[in-house]
Amino acid sequence: MNTPHKPVLYKEIIHALQPKSPGHYIDGTLGAGGHARGILEACAPDGHLLGLDVDVQALALARENLAPFGQRAQLTQASYISLLDVMHEIGWDAVDGIVLDLGLSSMQLDTPERGFSFTHDAPLDMRFNRDFGLTAAQLVNTWPEADLADILFKYGEEPRAKRIVRAIIKARPLTTTAQLAEIVKRAYPEHSRVHPATRTFQALRIAVNDELASVEDALPKAISALRSGGRLAVISFHSLEDRIVKDFFREQAKDLINPPYEQIYKVERKATLKEINRKPITPDEEEIKENPRARSAKLRVVEKL
Ligand SMILES: C[S@@+](CC[C@H](N)C(=O)[O-])C[C@H]1O[C@@H](n2cnc3c(N)ncnc32)[C@H](O)[C@@H]1O
């Protein structure tokens, strides 16, 4: 496989989804197709996979890598928030398993002109889908001070958000990753192990791609796409994402009973799913040694009741 991206928690994803022939599966974050390949191998000879990614470059690479599976792999440029629509368009009414491996791929991080990394100087872009939405440069150059500070604080958990944003406003217009990284560095005169721009870059990437809202939107859709007994496996890479996944799974794993005073209109929602693991599955030391980018991954798996 031509893949500069090592699939994270690969064995664990295959174990979680238990793909079988002739099942139907969705990979909502195709990337280079690493997890997709494992699923297609495991559901041979008659299982099918629908693969989605918003990034045309990822899709092109996945097409190349998954070509040997022929018609069993159907790949489309789409967001995972549209997974129900896309699956209905191709005539599927329910699926046996879905994987969402959130965030960005190594290809995206390591391609300087995508603007995700402060280690290369490049235009500040950060969009997963380069045909759509505001770039990070447009965001830092046009958003009001209070909104920018809010983003850095909420999405980056950046304690010096206000100071950084004041410096950004002074330095406008910003066009490159190096300019932004330098501004953040100046807000942190002391030396730290992690580059001080890490949190700011994470925050802007989340905002540019509306990542948290997308995850919130996608989870209920993914559950309704599953047939009973089907599984959803989600890998997240930071605590904000993991909290959304955890809270949604916990909530849906409980029966919902309205308080007694609303008895007349009492609506009970039975639990819609069961948690396969209450604690997140994380990469072992060997995987982290081979692929340090896997270190913050957390996998949660549920089964539709
Ligand atoms: C961590 S990578 C996935 C890697 C993949 N599992 C593999 O094994 O190669 C995440 C991918 O999700 C894509 N992505 C991000 N947001 C998306 C969205 N809303 N819908 C579909 N794909 C998305 C990114 O473009 C990126 O290619």
Structure explained in plain terms:
The protein has 305 residues and is α/β, with parallel strands linked by helices. Helices cover 42% and strands 14% of the residues. It is built from 13 helices and seven strands. It has helices at 10-17, 34-42, 56-66, 83-89, 106-110, 136-142, 145-156, 161-171, 177-186, 197-208, 211-225, 239-252, 285-290, and strands at 24-27, 48-53, 73-77, 95-101, 226-236, 273-275, 298-304. It has a seven-stranded mixed sheet, sandwiched between helices. Strand 2, helix 3 and strand 3 form a beta-alpha-beta unit. Helix 11 (211-225) runs parallel beside helix 12. The radius of gyration is 21 Å and the shape is globular. The chain starts with 9 loop residues before the first helix and ends with a strand. The model has no long low-confidence stretch (mean pLDDT 94). The structure holds S-adenosylmethionine. Residues 5, 7, 28-29, 31-35, 52-55, 58, 79-80, 101, 103-105, 128, 209, 214 line the site of S-adenosylmethionine (SAM).
Secondary-structure map:
Blueprint lengths: L9 H8 L6 E4 L6 H9 L5 E6 L2 H11 L6 E5 L5 H7 L5 E7 L4 H5 L25 H7 L2 H12 L4 H11 L5 H10 L10 H12 L2 H15 E11 L2 H14 L20 E3 L9 H6 L7 E7 L1
Parallel strand pairs: 1-2, 1-4, 2-3, 4-5
Antiparallel strand pairs: 5-7, 6-7
Bound molecules: S-adenosylmethionine.
Tell me the strand percentage band: 5-15%
**Strand arrangement, major sheet:** 3-2-1-4-5-7-6
Please report the total strand number as a whole number.
Answer: 7
What is the average of the pLDDT values? Answer: 94
- Gross morphology is globular
Element-by-element helix/strand order: HEHEHEHEHHHHHHHEHEHE
Ligands, ions, cofactors: S-adenosylmethionine
Helices and strands: which structural class?
alpha/beta
Number of helices: 13
Poorly predicted regions: none
Proportion in helices: 40-55%
